[in-house]
Amino acid sequence: MFSQCRFAAVLAAAAILSTTAAEAQPAKSKLDDVLSRGRLVLGTGSTNAPWHFKGADGKLQGFDIDMGRVIAKALFGDPEKIEFVTQSSDARIPNITTGKVDITCQFMTVTGERAQQVAFTIPYYREGVGLMLKANGSYADYAALKAAGSSVTISVLQNVYAESMVHAALPQAKVDQYESVDLIYQALESGRADAAATDQSSIAWFMTQNPGRYKDAGYGWNPQSYSCAVARGDQDWLNFVNTALHEAMTGVEFDFYAASFKKWFGVDLAPPQIGIPVEFK
């Protein structure tokens, strides 16, 4: 009886040790899966220039698309080793949590609520609201608009926060709301509005498409960060993507990042300062 009890105890101890050892084994990272597959599966949109949209050749292009190519190049040495899954904005988080995509890069604003569902990468762009003026218009810049007070009319996309958003920058301005971005630009062009208020990236893109006709008023507000997103709980994968994006903005892939920024936003970026990394100054 004693030997049987001792044998049972040994079996139980072995089972415990086996379970503990299994639990100690690190879970396989998405990084390993992507490398084994040989391509990155990226979730993004297809209808919002300059972020993600189809060109004349039917292929996706835009700043989000370029950020995906940055990650693909870091993975495989080839920015073309990427598969795009086009998705609506509502599908951005579900497609990550269900594993349909490896990562989403789709002008996704970082919020605390979303960060409870997905893991955000470091930001690759800081968005904000800006004001676009006609190059030959009555107002030179933001200071002139603000000084004009209630005589200024601002066109803006219709939404429940539109008026308060504009008044945060121009407290006395008249606010005219329109149902589409095209209409707010038309109001500016026709003279019904003195300035158009919209995302600064949209202003930059519109100005690159219409050189010399418009100008930025030189003031931005309502900042928000755009980041890619991956599934929670996979630090190796998150670290890798962060490294790829970080080095695009500050290191070995800066030329690619800067060329993309210039193409889509019309802005020449100053190269990263040599010496102590700027993030540690």
Automatic annotation (TrEMBL):
Keyword terms: Signal, Transport
Domain of life: Bacteria
Entry-linked Pfam families: SBP_bac_3 (PF00497)
Single GO cellular component term: extracellular region
Gene3D superfamilies found in the cross-reference section: Periplasmic binding protein-like II (3.40.190.10)
Domain Solute-binding protein family 3/N-terminal: 39-268
UniProt xrefs under PROSITE patterns: SBP_BACTERIAL_3
Biological processes, Gene Ontology terms: amino acid transport
Family as reported in the entry's similarity comment: Belongs to the bacterial solute-binding protein 3 family.
Protein name (database record): Polar amino acid transport system substrate-binding protein
Native source species: Chelatococcus caeni
